[in-house]
Queue: 2 jobs
Job 1
Amino acid sequence: MSRYFHSVMLDQDKCKGCTNCIKHCPTEAIRVREGRAVIIEERCIDCGECIRICPNRAKLAITDPLERLADYQYTIALPAPSLYAQFGPEVLPGSIIGALLSMGFDEVYEVAVGAVAVSNALHRYIESQSGHRPVISSACPAVVRLMQVRFPGLLEHIAPVETPMEISARLAREKARQEHDLPDNAIGVFFITPCPAKVTAIKQPFGERSYVDGAFSMSAIYGAVLRHLQDVADAPPDSLSPALGVGWGKTGGENQAIKKHALLAVDGIHNVINVLEEIERGGLTDIHYIEAQACTGGCIGGPLTPQNPFVARVRMERLLKVLAAGERPLPAFPDDPEYYRLAGPIPPRPTLKLSSDINRAIGMLEEVERITAELPGLDCGSCGSPNCRALAEDIVRGYAESSYCVFKLREKLQLLAREIVDLAHKQPPAMGKPEKHSKDSAIQNKNADQQVGRKEGTDL
Amino acid sequence: MEFSVCGMDFNRAGEAAAQIKKALQLVGMHMDTMRRAVIVAYEAELNIVIHARQGRLVAHIHPDRVELEAIDEGPGIPDIPRAMQEGYSTAPAHIRKMGFGAGMGLPNIKKSASQMRLTSEINVGTRLTATIINQTSGD
């Protein structure tokens, strides 16, 4: 089995083993062992919740360095719509595009433009779809990966429509090939990402390849963009920036762009889990489409965005009003629905199974139940597992021992202490009187003590 | 696995079904078996919450099937064939306002389960047993 690529990594030197991350991971993919967090690769969905919560900044996302631009003859930047919400109200998309060009990109293709094409494709798909309801958005890679691990039964609900990032990359690539007569491998397409899950979606796509070659963290290039804004202050380049496409950067934006259906938007990975559970129980069939985003606020709340998500939301809303007032015509998009089809099937990742043999797994489950009942149920995380039940599972899988629980360890120590005291009272036969005799005399002494006590009690 | 379910406790409704789902995932039940068992467990749990004073939800997991039992202490069902009709509900108006008690619980259970048995005694309680065959067993 091939190894999973993960954007989310651990900085061993910074990790103090504090257990904050294990409590927030939505797939219970982290354990603390030997004073350091350990990520269980198969379960990690790169949502970045651990990056957000780590007080020691020990969790990080692997993105590409800007030097990678030198690997290609012609480079294209794909700014995520959420990038536009990271700046003050005076900075419009044209200026940001100018700054990116000034930083060394040969071209900028706005993901907001591709998002309009995807919205149209989704609209058509929802109209024609009569099977699994509700249709679930494929746009947030952390949600898609969450479903692979925790909700494999819902994978068939995912809209088989590519993400705005992929469609934009494809459109940008084709445009560059035609306009500059370049071979495909001479073109480098780089996404400016608000989150680690997008990096994973590029490095480990569901299809054979991603149309994107790399990703730069929004936070990492933010300073450079700010500096280069001055270069274009006088004459910023044109921007197409359709309001409906830019809106994809925030919660509810997808739904606004798709229109005309019963739609639901949910954000924040734990809220998404609640909604997916509801669908799994057979609910929400009255909803046509669910826009689910792992980050609170949507992509503007991504762990790799520099701005506070609430500030970004206000800026995004204001920007959308400005953009809606000055809409410009967009290029024609391909009509063929196949052009937008998701590149590959999304397979389940059954990483929770205790054993591949169901009989053995049932036996192990019984053991998990038994151990869980014996554990204190405080879910303190001191054992390095996220909760008592997870520790029980880890014990049964052979990854932990019951002594990892500090309370069980205390119990064992108390027993041991009692045994040591008992042993300390035992005399070897060579010393003092024989065992039986001393036992008898001990009983006699005890009885005598009790009589004295009673007497004393009466006197008092 | 056994879970206590308390009548009118909507805050915790669905918790037992979620635990059962997790157990089925750990065991590696077929996805369709899991989906159907979750629907049965949830609807049965919700029936206890809506209609009964208290009850228990019990899951027995076997390689070839999942057996679910919901036993409650409550008013009982006076007319079982009628209760099995889609849309028929005895849930009070305030429960319906919350979006529950649409009269689809028992029909959904019947649809999702391979076998279902329902017995009830007025003013004593109701016992529902449902079996979901794991279709991949023997593969």
Job 2
Amino acid sequence: MEQVVSIKRKKKRRNIFYMLKEDYKKHKLIYFMLIPVLLYYIIFQYGPMLGIVIGFKDYRPGLGIFGSKWVGFEYFQHFLSSRYFWRLVKNTLTINFYLLLFGFPAPIILALLLNEVKHKAFKKTVQTITYMPHFISLVVVSGIIVDLVATDGVINDILAFFGFQRQNLLTISGLFRPIFVTSDIWQHIGWGTIIYLAALSGISPSLYEAAKIDGANRFKQIIHVTLPGIAPTITILLIMRIGKMMLVGWEKIILLYNPVIYETADVISSFVYRKGLLEFDFSYSTAVGLFNSVINFGLLIAANKIGKKISGSGLW
Amino acid sequence: MARKKSLKNKFGVFDGINYFLLSMLCLLTLYPIIYVLFASISDPVLFQSHKGLLMKPIGFTIEAYRLVFESPAVLTGYKNTLFYVIVGTSINLFLTSLGAYALAQKDLYIAKVLTIMIIFTMQFKGGLIPTYYVVNQLLGHSRLTLLLPQAIITMNLIIMRTSFRSIPESLFESARIDGANDMTLLSKIVLPLSKPVMAVMALYYGVNHWNQWFQASIYLRDRKLYPLQLFLREIVLQNQLDESSMGIDVGTEAHIGVIIKYATIMVAVIPILCVYPYIQKFFVKGVMIGAIKG
């Protein structure tokens, strides 16, 4: 029995090699063209995946990855029982929840409004202006934010006019999330509409005609014709969004935050950055990062399952 | 009366509110940028004592711009950023089109395996620290750290592959009969027919390089290699208006320091804002091709 299996396996393996050989003969040049591409993926994408072992070792720079000794899940346990754990998970999820609650519907609403504009030039102007911040670098965006909310910044000028005390808004922990989310919407609302506007342009005009004959006004048309028309697009984007619930771009966070507001501003990825690249705690930081990706992957699978059940459309 | 009614149909209360909301949104979007622009050309002394919204520049001076353009930091940064944008984007386009061409081959046996292998990397990544480790070990603190580790963005590779696939098979067959090999096919048929998607990709990659600061901040040690965004971070966010970044003695010109950061922001943003309206439709096209695949 065992022999049969091993023969079968051998045959199959020979087949693969045979196919590869034939394939190579037929497409020799393509194989050569692929060399730099494969090198890129092996070195810079798969290489770091192997590097994840740092998280299971007590990494010492002098010994290198291979020389350092295995410690198993020690760093994971260390993280799970540390006082940072709940704070980081809570902040990551809360910021994402706000982004989902306010940031996700924002482009949908804008796309619906834009779709109702019949004046082409006006529509084009609004689109051009609202797409624009998407191309401005995070350094500049953060610079502008810091300046606007500074003690002598414009927003404080306005608040002072209404009798509020002047203070740097980025040193108040309760305000970090609103500032983060608002600026995120400001930067990406227009860009996010592109995909919805495309979906909207695919809705048959006859549906609107029928709705009009049935006496639906503009609002009813939006609710009964337009929204169902883009529902599949919304579902897929929502699934992708939920799959990233545990990810928050660390770039803007590390540009904006400061120790005074770590309580609400520090998220897992900014913590990974700080521990790893500022304090050089490679192993601990890698373990935390890996923990984060595992949870994320689980979320994506769960979200996809739920999305399929509810609407029949999923990522796979 | 009838005429009035038809007019009302054309532009009702709904439209009025809609146009108002959209106009407000445009104002809100533009204002921060306009604020920075006004501040950058305002008289620094008057600006400092000003409170509230800026509706126009207060006073007028381009002194801040003169200092910015004379500062070695901004000049070095500009030069480096141009280098990263041009060389980086060339590498990106070269490698991405090689990969996209190979994966677009319908009869290539390994294409299927490779596609899975490549898409896998979109969901699974080594993470910040392992990536840093690999890049640092291999490339040290050289310029290459900003060019090679992101030589291919997988999403872009897939967009390009989708576009290459739409080229009619018969074109390839006839060229093959005429003795063309894959390299000629790619350079003489596929790329010339794919100008729009190549433009989109060039712009995606180009903007990426232009706005890049994070990788630079972790990999580069030598200030001579810094891209503009890193100097910008020093000037704008860390308020390091000192000799090292500006090359001027701000102490003696303290008043101008207030508006220098605005001028620096404008200098970094203006090129993108000037190019962007022309390239907007290309970007939109890129999002669409990406979405079709999704």
